[in-house]
Structures are given as structure tokens and as C-alpha cells.
Design goal:
The protein is α+β, with helices and mostly antiparallel strands and 353 residues long. The protein folds into 2 domains: 4-223, P-loop containing nucleotide triphosphate hydrolases (Rossmann fold), CATH 3.40.50; 236-352, Nucleic acid-binding proteins (OB fold (Dihydrolipoamide Acetyltransferase, E2P)), CATH 2.40.50.140. Helices cover 24% and strands 35% of the residues. The protein is built from 8 helices and 20 strands. It has helices at residues 42-50, 92-101, 107-120, 136-148, 166-183, 194-200, 218-223, 228-233; strands at 4-13, 16-26, 31-35, 57-62, 65-66, 77-81, 154-158, 186-190, 203-208, 211-216, 238-244, 248-251, 256-258, 270-275, 281-284, 294-305, 309-316, 319-326, 338-343, 349-352. The strands form 4 sheets. Strands 6-7-8-3-9-10 form a 6-stranded mixed beta sheet, sandwiched between helices. Strands 13-12-11-14-20 form a 5-stranded antiparallel beta sheet. The protein is elongated and about 80 Å long. The two termini are 40 Å apart. Bound molecules: adenosine-5'-triphosphate. Adenosine-5'-triphosphate (ATP) binds next to strand 2 and helix 1.
């Protein structure tokens, strides 16, 4: 177990800056998800931490020691990748034992450690099988056992679940989290799946074009996005643009929207605000007068029914606003119906543009 810090790390490929002055502290024993669009530098960052690649500048500190020039085999790092190939001709036990054998660990010790790792991933009885006799989820557990058997200081996971189907993936998310807690290992997890990042991690960092644009707990990032990019990348958000006022923002048509009181310096000039679709309530236009909080009149253009919820698309002043409504037996609004949208200033995050 160890704290991992990357400090001012930059890495370019030719003229392209894959990592641009990235600094992140990955807490000891924590589960940290790196999120970002394709090409934002997530894998490049993992490769620097693992030692497969070296930064042009900056430091990688593991357990207080600078390791940026230490080769991969000298770092105690466990890794699981999406396409982490197991040795097909070896049994599960031998696959898991491999990392210990090459490190010269004694046979007796290997047997105990492999059993411990297989028990942890709940494959205790399948040690004699070959990889082709396992399901996709079981193979991924073997890969995980193989990574943790060497008792690494850090576990790096690069989209380890993305090859699994949805149901198995959800099971494995729970399993992975259980194992991570049990071993208490500092884990850095790359995923494209924002729901996975929100449900599994203690902290999330969002990368964009090689830069860290925001980090925090899942709640902090979801509830307090600092940019339109962060607001729309993690979760769905309606972005309303206008001019800053004393209490929030004035939209192009003059409507005043009150926002959450910001502890930040007061903003001036052009700003935006973000409102999550589930924070908005739709009411019939006739109910407008009885509402408090923010209010916008609009017209329903579409409703998409998804069983437990419906998404409404509402047009107002040339913009489409999404509203997520839990279906609880209420009469749905019709397409073309005039409605009013209401939500609280607390649910309105002011963003500098
Ligand atoms: P994805 O989600 O698609 O896996 P990513 O966020 O992991 O993307 P990286 O693989 O880190 O992105 O790549 C970041 C940028 O660096 C990309 O533009 C990529 O093309 C470039 N890049 C990565 N490795 C190399 C390399 N060895 N040579 C040249 N360019 C590279």
C-alpha cells in the first residue's frame, strides 16, 4: 500500500502533448477513477506510473520515493488491462503463480500465496482449469488474482471490465470494490463508463487533452462541476448561458435565474449555469403562478419512455432542455403541450465560461 503522486508530469509524442503538467495525489488505499474522452491521456498517465514509459518532465512518487526513472520490473505494481491475456496453456494456478515464480519465491510460499489470491477472487476451486474453460468474468478474476498475488503497492486497472456484458460487469464492479477494500490497496482505475466511475471510486479525476480539468469526490464533481465540459462529461446537464448578475445569471431573453451562492469570487460578464435533468420539475403551464424558485416556460417536443423514468425534451427560446422524470403513475405530458419548468437555485451551478 502506498500513496502515489504524479507531480507536474508532461509527456509529448512528437508535437503532441499527451500529458501537460499533470499533478494528482492518489490517496493511500483509495480507489481513484481517471475519466476523460478518448485520447485525453489516461492510458499514457497509467503507463508513466507503471514504468512502461517515462515522463519528459515531472516526478512520479510512490510511497515517498521518486520512481520516474525506475524500470517497470522494479516497481511493485499490479496491473489489469481490458485485454490482459492469460497464458492459455497454463492452469489458473500456474497463471497466478507466474509473477511469484519469476521473482524467485519458494514453491511452498507460492502455493500459499496463490491459494490466498484465488480465494480472494472466489475462484478457490478452479485452480486446475485452463483459461478456455472459464467464463469471461472468471478470466478477469484470474487476471486480478495474478495482479494482486505479488502484493503490489499499487493496482492499475485500465478498463478491466469493458469486455464484459452489462450484467456481468455490474457483478464484477461489486466484486472488484470488495476485493480492493479487503486488500486496502491504492487503486487507479481508467474507465470510459461514468456510472462505473461514480459508483466505484472515492475520487475522480477528469482529463482533457492531457490536462487535469477537475478532481474531487464523485459527489463534488457531479454537484459542483467547474466547467461546461466537466458538467456534461460526467452525467447529463442542461447548460444555460447569459450574463452574470448579483444572484446568478440573466438569460438572453431577460429571464433571471438564481444560482447556488458561490463562495468563489463573484463572477461578471458572460457565464453559464448547469442544471441536472433530474433536478427539474415539469408542471402544467397553468401552475406557473404557484411555483417558487427558478422558472422557465416551454413546450414539450418529445418524451422518451424508459420504464422507470421518462426523459422530456422541452423547447424554450431556441434551446432544448432535458428533464428526467421518475414514472410514478402520473399522467404524462403530451408532446406539444405548454408547460413550465421549475427548479431550485441550490440545483443551479454557476460556471465561468
Ligand atoms: P482512450 O480512452 O482512447 O484509451 P486515452 O485517454 O487513454 O484514450 P492515451 O492512450 O493516453 O489516451 O493517448 C493520449 C494521446 O497520446 C493520444 O492522442 C494518442 O494518440 C497519443 N499517443 C499515445 N501513445 C503514443 C505513442 N506511443 N506514440 C504517439 N502518440 C501516442
Amino acid at each position: 500500500m502506498a500513496e502515489v503522486r504524479v507531480e507536474n508530469v508532461s509527456r509529448s509524442f512528437g508535437a503532441h502533448k499527451a500529458l501537460d503538467d499533470v499533478s494528482i495525489a492518489f490517496p493511500d488505499g483509495g480507489f481513484y477513477a481517471l475519466l476523460g474522452p478518448s485520447g485525453s491521456g489516461k492510458t499514457t498517465l497509467l503507463r508513466q506510473i507503471a514504468g512502461f514509459d517515462f515522463p519528459d518532465s515531472g516526478r512520479i512518487v510512490i510511497d515517498g520515493k521518486g520512481v520516474e526513472r525506475v524500470p517497470v520490473e522494479k516497481r511493485r505494481i499490479g496491473m489489469v488491462f481490458q485485454n490482459y491475456a492469460l497464458f492459455p496453456n497454463m492452469s489458473v494456478t500456474d497463471n497466478v503463480a507466474f509473477g511469484l515464480s519469476v521473482r524467485g519465491v519458494s514453491r511452498a510460499e507460492i502455493a500459499g500465496e496463490v491459494q490466498r489470491a484465488l480465494d480472494l477472487v472466489q475462484l478457490g476451486g478452479l485452480g486446475e482449469r485452463r483459461p478456455h474453460q472459464l467464463s469471461g468474468g472468471q478470466r478477469q478474476r484470474v487476471a486480478l488474482a495474478r495482479a494482486i498475488v505479488i502484493r503490489p503497492q499499487v493496482l492499475l486497472l485500465d478498463e478491466p471490465l469493458s469486455a464484459l456484458d452489462k450484467a456481468l460487469r455490474v457483478d464484477m464492479q461489486v466484486e472488484l470494490k470488495r476485493i480492493q477494500r479487503e486488500v486496502g490497496i491504492t487503486t487507479i482505475f481508467v474507465t470510459h463508463d461514468q456510472e462505473e466511475a461514480l459508483t466505484m471510486s472515492d475520487r475522480i479525476g477528469i482529463l482533457r487533452e492531457g490536462r487535469l480539468v477537475q478532481e474531487g469526490s464523485p459527489e463534488e464533481i457531479y454537484d459542483h462541476p467547474v466547467s461546461e465540459f466537466a458538467a456534461t462529461f460526467l452525467g447529463d446537464a442542461n447548460i444555460l448561458r447569459g450574463e452574470a448578475t448579483e444572484t446568478g445569471i440573466r438569460l438572453g431573453d431577460g429571464t433571471e435565474i438564481a444560482t447556488r451562492l458561490n463562495s468563489m469570487v463573484r463572477m461578471t460578464g458572460k457565464v453559464s449555469c448547469a442544471v441536472r435533468p433530474e433536478r427539474i420539475t415539469i408542471l402544467p403551464a397553468s401552475a406557473a403562478a404557484s411555483t417558487t424558485g427558478n422558472r422557465l416556460a416551454g413546450r414539450v417536443s418529445k418524451r422518451i419512455f424508459a420504464g422507470d423514468s421518462s426523459t422530456y425534451f422541452v423547447e424554450r427560446d431556441g434551446q432544448t432542455i432535458k428533464v428526467l422524470v421518475q414514472n410514478a403513475g402520473q399522467i404524462p405530458f403530451d408532446e406539444g403541450q405548454d408547460i413550465v419548468l421549475t427548479w431550485s437555485p441550490e440545483s443551479t451551478v454557476l460556471i465561468r465560461t
